[in-house]
Amino acid sequence: MSTSTKQNTGAPRLAKTRATEASASPAQSQNSAPGIRPVRRDDLNAVIEIDAMVTGIEKLDYWNSLYQRYADAVETGQHFLVATHGDEVIGFVIGEVRDWEFGSAPCGWVFAINVRPDARLGGTATDLLNAICEGFRKAGVSKVRTLLSRDNTLILSFFRSQGMMIGPFIPLEMDLEL
Ligand SMILES: CC(C)(COP(=O)(O)OP(=O)(O)OC[C@H]1O[C@@H](n2cnc3c(N)ncnc32)[C@H](O)[C@@H]1OP(=O)(O)O)[C@@H](O)C(=O)NCCC(=O)NCCS
Known about the structure:
This protein has 6 helices and 5 strands; from the N terminus they run H-H-E-H-H-E-E-E-H-E-H.
């Protein structure tokens, strides 16, 4: 897609959602606007928890390693951002600029985007995607790509809503005998 994602409307949309939801979570009942910022070490437990909610697997080593590679690495094109509401982390996005991989000109890749189930449909993922796309723009790239499971209609609906379309690449794989 081009990087012209939806406009950043996070705070008003989240406020609207919270005001109309009967079963607001502790995060949702706090009286402060959501924000997007680079991840910090003490956000990791919340990130691991959100990922485990979605995947059912708690991957401590994986997230620690990812943190070391991506935190404070904007200069080299890596982005690991969190969405917060009050003191609570309610979502995250991870991606980076990759040069000439798969034969393509430098572009931004979004590897993961997740929002807590009780904080969804408030514009948080839209804000996270807009923020990482802004980072990609600053790095001089004008294209963003991602890869997703064809069974994951939720994430597909989200990316389609942002204007992403099928790209010019085909994923291939095969089993390796061990
Ligand atoms: C997909 C996900 C990131 C969306 O987060 P979110 O904060 O709820 O998204 P937004 O509120 O910004 O939604 C933006 C748009 O996405 C689409 N969308 C989001 N959730 C949707 C749903 N449940 N059904 C249909 N469309 C949906 C809508 O078009 C929505 O716009 P609208 O509210 O104006 O209709 C979130 O549902 C999530 O974390 N899902 C699990 C992600 C996952 O499987 N990750 C693993 C691979 S990385």
